[in-house]
Amino acid sequence: MSHPHTHLRPGTPPPPAGAADWRAWSQAWTQHVPLLTGRTDLTVLVAPGAAGDAPECFYPDLNRIEVDATYIADSPDVTDPAKARHKRLVPTGYGLLVHGAAHAAHSRWTTPHGTPPILATVADLLEESRAEGRQRARRRGDRRWLRHVVTTLLRPDDAAIDDAWHAGQLAALLLARVDARIVTSKDVRPIRAAVTGVLGRKRLRQLRDIWREAHTCDDTDADTMICLARRWCQVLGIDPDQQYDTPVPDAGLFPGRLAAALVDYLAVAAGVTPAEYATALLAHRHSPPTEWDRTDPTEQEHRAARDLANRLRQARTRHPEPGLRPSPIPPGRLRTRHAITADAQTAAGQMPTAAPWQQRAQLPPEKPRLHLAVLVDLSGSMARYTQAMSSAAWIFANAARRADATTTTIGFGDRTTVLVPPRTYPRQVLHMRTELATATFPEAVKVADQLLDLRHGRALRMLAVVSDGYLDDIPAGQQLVTTLHRAGCAVLWLHPADPPTDGEPADPDQIWGHTFTHTTTLTVTDPTEAIAAIADAAVTALTQA
């Protein structure tokens, strides 16, 4: 699969559906693109889903720029593309056209045959700011439109973990655009601080020398671009002759400062707070499928929520009765007999030993707020538990509202689904459905950490996993669980006692019925026992806090 930032691709893409509805846009932009590029042999295709997995792409073999219409508007009648003023109404879509025009006009080199994929990827990253810088130098007014699409061309996964590769990738995509005079140094201040924290000042200066040299390369100089890509890898400590493929993020590591800085940048560009941006991104990626059923909660579920809320409240407020202690000075309650004795001792010229005041002992510190994340395995082998855990998600959320706690329930299977986000109190019970695999367990743990800050803070943190342990990526999951354990987050694993179904195919890459270390593992025989075990663990943790 092509790298998401590769906007220059060989070959012939399949025709996208819906192109006929956007034919007027394709024709208007085809007539307009010679003004942007100085070329008369180009065509533009606008359609939903065009450009493959990127918002925009240039295909040199077809002399065609493709723009995904979903970045323009929901329907083609938003404006008339044949009129010049239309660009102000669809700045992001028009910016994608300008970005494609920059590649069509200035990305005239092709990767030499046999180049390691990692070098090709780095060269493509350097080409992004080089092509845009050349376009801005030739048409200064295009900078306005290119600035609109910088955030569109970025993905939150560009800073998946804090390592040298991803820090370098973020530097090439944003810091290099400062020297290309597309964005300003003020725009990327948090990004620069985060990248410097990972790479150090010396390595960042070396990378800057490389992208500045790339900005001076000729439009057809492929050899120099590949040589610069090799130098880039050497600065990051990567040998492209040994590590042939592009590095992938370690699934067992949590996002760090790079991810936080990128979210801050994207939020500022979108005009929202980082928390609002993260919430919107989470809803876009992990909302429940529309086909999942919803039902009104039963009286039994209402009663269970009230009972759990009462137990949690009692656990939070149950303190030892404060004792009483004598004191020679106020505040407190004056004890007359002891006051007279103290006065008599003073009048006799003695050191007073009587303590006329009675004080209450200091109250115990307030108990921390409970942060509870429940992860539910949605693989086919857990079908018996999905109904009960769907009910549990509603019970936990509504009990937390009354007990000063924060909970979330997340399902993991073929995808990660946030069933109940924190600080939301659903009116209905959302019923989960089983899926085919459990490939997203590491992602589900990271989402839980993002929602409840399980690795930090003064809250009482607990992660409960309801799974038979038939997971795809055991090492990454174990690494994440160990990180939470060492950070002070308790991990409760509820393992059903049911054996695998007869005839179920065995995958040699999976460890069936695996038991994780650094967890408190309980074997449960039925779904209601799992719910009770989570509730009991939460109450016990609060009582002992």
UniProtKB/TrEMBL annotation:
Annotated stretches, region: Disordered: 1-20, 313-334
Q: Which SUPFAM superfamilies match?
A: vWA-like
Q: Which Pfam families match?
A: VWA_CoxE
Superkingdom is Bacteria
Q: Which InterPro entries match?
A: Uncharacterised_CoxE (IPR008912), vWFA_dom_sf (IPR036465)
Q: What is this protein called?
A: VWA domain-containing protein
